[in-house]
Write a structure and sequence with these properties.
With about 425 residues, the chain is mainly alpha-helical. The protein has a single domain (about 5-405), classed as Proton glutamate symport protein, CATH 1.10.3860. About 75% of the residues lie in helices and about 0% in strands. The protein is built from 18 helices and no strands. Helix 2 packs across helix 8.
Length: about 425
């Protein structure tokens, strides 16, 4: 228990493989018995714990994040520029996730067991983009929360955050502090849930290997390659292009300036934990003023999750491929829209992307019984993906800070790093 979490997960995964092989040999590919059922229940409990934190985590994250925007200058030009960048960069990320997963098709022919009774008729197919927008507005926010209508929950949470910024100063300060404290509490609860991940992973991997055999790891390796390919395209092609087109500055300078922050993000898997280092690099090495960085970066750590959005979109399409389902363009559009919105509520803590992926699966009608084992398998190999994902999240935030600073007329950028 003194080992770091990712090593605990690796050990649990190894033990799960061994236990899965043992059960497969004993029961000839059809495991049963109370011991096996007990082990499998550990994975089921873990999935339920993940589901438990989703609604309160998303609501408190979005409300506190959006409410913090409503201070003075942030309502005007600066806020518009910042959120325009957030929207464009996140949309491009989820589109990349959709494209690479459709091209590489890592889930096609995959041998990861579902519940064996998946019915494509359960999928919720919107009739039109207009219906998607209409369904985003909940008739009853509490009913939406109870039934897991995540788009409606996200919409109402954004609305609440905006409304808080329009209240009297005393009420505004009280509600900001309240939702901020609630968000901290939910991140702590989520952290506790993630700490029991090794136990859940043991149960999920045991179930998967005992049913699917070791062919599972061929599928997982292709899945990892697909996600990493999407991340690399966004990190080293899309974001540098956005950066150069908007600033006319060599992107290499920005990579050099953000080295410390990227290493910290890669090692901690937490945008929030990396925020002080990100702000220091952006201000001292990239030369962005504190006025810009103190507005753009804290908001980015909450609402600008490029890597997470790409992962969610690609992950859900991977799940649909595993289940043998060909998603229509309309269903994929819904995935893109949901991934775009749910990335707003992804907490800046390790493995938050795996928690939030349940939002996207629910939006198109997948049940826990359909996707629980598959998502558990994804979580088992999530640590290296999470490291890269977090690095992209904070790098995108920093790119946005420089773009906004340049557009605001700041000229003393990258002092000491420019070759001339």
């Amino acid at each position: 228990m003194k080992l770091k979490l990712h090593w605990q997960i690796v050990i649990a995964m190894a033990l799960g493989i061994v236990a899965g092989i043992v059960f497969q040999l004993i029961y000839h590919g059809e495991p049963s018995g109370w011991v096996y059922n007990l082990v499998v229940s550990l994975g089921t409990i873990f999935i339920r714990l993940l589901r438990m934190v989703i609604v309160p985590l998303i609501v408190t994250s979005i409300v506190s994040g959006v409410a913090s925007v409503g201070e003075g200058r942030s309502i005007g030009r600066l806020g518009l520029k910042t959120f325009s960048y957030y929207f464009v960069s996140t949309l491009l990320a989820v589109l990349i996730g959709m494209v690479v997963t459709n091209v590489m098709q890592p889930g096609v022919g995959a041998n990861i067991p579902g519940n064996g009774h998946f019915d494509p008729a359960n999928l919720k197919t919107p009739a039109s983009p207009g219906e998607i927008l209409v369904n985003m507005i909940p008739l009853n926010p509490l009913e939406a929360a109870v039934n897991g209508h995540m788009l409606g929950i996200i919409f109402f949470a954004i609305f609440m955050g905006i409304a808080i910024t329009k209240l009297k100063p005393d009420s505004q300060a009280f509600l900001k502090q309240t939702f901020g404290s609630l968000f901290e509490m939910m991140m702590k609860i989520t952290d506790y849930v993630i700490k029991v991940a090794p136990i859940g992973i043991f149960g999920l991997i045991t179930q998967t290997v005992s049913s699917a055999g070791l062919d599972l790891f061929k599928t997982v390796s292709l899945y990892i390659f697909t996600i990493v390919a999407g991340f690399t395209i966004h990190m080293f092609i899309v974001l540098p292009l956005i950066f150069y087109v908007t600033t006319r500055i060599n992107p290499v300078l920005h990579y050099k300036a953000m080295t410390s922050a990227m290493i910290t993000a890669f090692s901690t898997c937490s945008s929030n934990a990396t925020l002080p280092v990100t702000m220091n690099d952006v201000e001292t090495k990239a030369g962005v003023s504190n006025t810009i960085s103190s507005f753009v970066l804290p908001m980015g750590a909450t609402v600008n999750m490029n890597g997470t959005a790409l992962y969610e979109c690609a992950g859900v399409i991977f799940i649909s491929q595993v289940l043998g389902l060909d998603l229509t363009l309309m269903q994929q559009f819904l995935i893109v829209l949901t991934a775009l919105l749910s990335a707003v509520g992804a907490a800046g803590i390790p493995a938050a992307g795996v928690v939030v992926i349940f939002i996207v699966t629910q939006a198109i009608g997948f049940r826990d019984a359909d996707v629980g084992v598959i998502i558990g398998t994804m979580l088992a190999v999530d640590r290296p993906i999470d490291m890269y994902r977090t690095m992209i999240n904070i790098f995108s935030d920093s790119v946005g800070a420089v773009i906004v600073a340049k557009s605001e007329g700041e000229t003393n950028l990258y002092p000491g790093l420019r070759s001339r």
